[in-house]
């Protein structure tokens, strides 16, 4: 059996999925051309690492499609040296990209950030700190952050995460709106914070962010 040519697949991902779809930050392109995405998915699914769909992981979780990751990072406009909170780090692919871009990353996830063989893909990464906690709770001890990236789609942003943004801080996330996942960006100014929809885009749904149900009498 012929082994997959991951370098060629990675180059094709960059040219055919990213450059053609508004992923135009040269640092994002460089990081995604360098970091081996196949190292962050189960061995049995490595051949799927560069397809334009989510890659299943464990416990019902999945890795975002490459385009979703590229657009999140592009809209976040992360600068070298900035403190970034990554919510929903999973096996660590986006954390590795942020580290390659020179960010100081705090990565948080409920799922212990483990690959199927029980080893962490994140722990050896320079510039990445693993923080215990819940997705919706973030990692306040390491804040405030210049940027918060929620690596998936959620129903609403918890106030606890907004509080961890520094003044002028940015957030990039996916939002679920009437069954559609949309990329959204926001900025904090004083006590004010709001999100603006950027584009409809396929994203994985993160657990733990359901909007409280209300009853109408």
From TrEMBL:
Record-linked Gene3D superfamilies: Vaccinia Virus protein VP39
InterPro entries: PCMT, SAM-dependent_MTases_sf
One GO molecular-function entry: protein-L-isoaspartate (D-aspartate) O-methyltransferase activity
GO biological process terms on file: methylation
Keywords: Methyltransferase, Transferase
Annotated PANTHER family: PROTEIN-L-ISOASPARTATE O-METHYLTRANSFERASE
Name of the protein: Protein-L-isoaspartate O-methyltransferase
Organism: Sphingobium algorifonticola
């Amino acid at each position: 059996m012929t082994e997959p040519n991951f370098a060629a697949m990675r180059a094709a991902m960059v040219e055919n999925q990213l450059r053609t779809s508004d992923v135009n930050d040269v640092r994002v392109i460089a990081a995604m051309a360098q970091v081996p995405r196949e190292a962050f998915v189960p061995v049995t699914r490595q051949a799927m690492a560069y397809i334009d769909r989510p890659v299943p992981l464990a416990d019902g979780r999945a890795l975002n499609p490459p385009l979703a990751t590229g657009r999140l990072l592009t809209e976040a406009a992360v600068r070298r040296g900035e403190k970034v909170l990554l919510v929903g780090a999973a096996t660590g692919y986006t954390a590795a990209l942020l580290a390659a871009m020179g960010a100081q990353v705090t990565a948080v996830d409920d799922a212990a950030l483990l690959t199927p063989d029980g080893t962490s893909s994140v722990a050896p990464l320079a510039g990445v700190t693993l923080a215990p906690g819940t997705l919706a709770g973030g990692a306040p001890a390491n804040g405030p952050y210049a940027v918060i990236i929620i690596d998936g789609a959620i129903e609403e942003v918890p106030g606890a995460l907004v509080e961890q943004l520094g003044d002028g801080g940015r957030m990039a996330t996916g939002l679920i709106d009437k069954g559609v996942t949309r990329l959204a960006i926001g900025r904090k100014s004083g006590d004010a914070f709001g999100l603006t929809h950027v584009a409809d885009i396929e994203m994985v749904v993160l657990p733990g962010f359901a909007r409280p149900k209300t009853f109408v009498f």
